[in-house]
Design a protein that fits this description.
Shape: globular
Number of helices: 12
Mean pLDDT: 80
Largest sheet: 4 strands, mixed
Strand content: 5-15%
Structural class: alpha+beta
Radius of gyration: 23 Å
Strand order of the largest sheet: 4-5-6-7
Distance between the termini: 54 Å
């Protein structure tokens, strides 16, 4: 277990304490510098062991997922988001921070709105077939090659593009706008929608989906990050090496020497990997495309944005 030490009302962790609580006090705490409330405030908590998740959706589960998604109660936006994570390997926060190329908005304003929702700002350019994420978890930018399959998902999302509040002629820049239309949805929204549909009926959360078992799969509970892991696994099964997959998923290269001296991001190899992955998903998700599209109630009339001088990622800089 792990031990929590309450010091002046604040909790601190001793991650892997190897000694009993009193021994920890004797060896690690100086009474002259730290005032303790009382001995009883030291409590052992069972926070669980650090376990590395290894959940990967099998091909049969992906086929089952394609059949389950249309009837799951998820919006078409979220369904497309599931397939986009599989097709591009992005993290949930990167998915939800996507904006449309050509949006006539100040980049700093978009970045501020993305930060407020704890998502990563990115620009989707369907004409160029790329998705540029300005800053990722590992503090570097990442450009994703969009396969034909990924482009189809974004084209599907474009059908639901809405106008910004107060200006019916100005389309929203966000691929996944929040309910008020003022920014992107929060980073936890996507995962919550998936989790709500993978629980027993008696554990349904109040005011949440009644389709509690709609996305249950034989292999057990799965998360948005498991979709990312599944994308990597599919690439490996298709014959691509770990170094290419790492670049596709924008992993930080473990070797410091390689990070410093090898600056090639293997762009051509990434494109081949993403195209092969998209072709594989095209086959596995064939059943989902047979379902009729659901209407998004909040969709508004789409208008052509005004032309302006833009930078190389398609966002107007003011």
């Amino acid at each position: 277990g792990r031990f929590r030490l309450i010091v002046d009302g604040w909790a601190t962790f001793n991650p892997r304490a190897c000694a009993p609580p009193r021994r920890v006090l004797e060896d690690a705490v100086s009474p002259s510098t730290i005032r303790l409330k009382r001995a009883s405030t030291i409590a052992e908590i069972r926070s669980g062991a650090s376990v590395e998740r290894d959940r990967v959706l099998s091909t049969s589960e992906l086929e089952g997922l394609a059949s389950a998604l249309p009837a799951s109660g998820l919006t078409d936006r979220t369904v497309a988001g599931v397939w986009l994570v599989l097709a591009t390997g992005v993290r949930a926060g990167e998915l939800l921070g996507a904006t449309w190329c050509g949006s006539d908005f100040d980049l700093a304003e978009l970045k501020s709105a993305a930060d407020a929702s704890a998502v990563k700002l990115g620009v989707v350019d369907l004409t160029a077939g790329r998705w540029h994420i300005l800053e990722t978890k590992n503090q570097r930018s990442h450009t994703i090659h969009l396969s034909d399959y990924a482009v189809k998902q974004f084209e599907r999302l474009a059908q639901f593009r809405e106008a910004i509040p107060g200006d019916p002629n100005q389309p929203s820049p966000w691929v996944f706008p929040n309910a008020s239309g003022t920014g992107p949805v929060g980073v936890k929204s996507f995962g919550k929608q998936l989790a709500d549909r993978q629980r027993p009926p008696e554990r349904r959360l109040k005011h949440r989906s009644r389709d509690t078992e709609a996305l249950l799969l034989p292999g057990g509970r799965w998360t948005a990050h498991d979709l990312r892991r599944t994308a990597a696994t599919l690439m490996a099964e298709l014959g691509f090496g770990g170094d290419i997959i790492d670049e596709c998923l924008n992993h930080m290269i473990e070797s410091r020497v390689r990070r410093v001296y090898v600056r090639d991001r293997r762009v051509a190899d990434q494109a081949r990997a993403f195209n092969a992955l998209g072709a594989r998903l095209e086959v596995l998700s064939a059943g989902a495309r047979a379902e009729p599209a659901r209407t998004v109630p909040r969709a508004r009339r789409r208008a052509n944005p005004a032309r302006a001088q833009r930078n190389d990622i398609g966002v107007t800089i003011r």
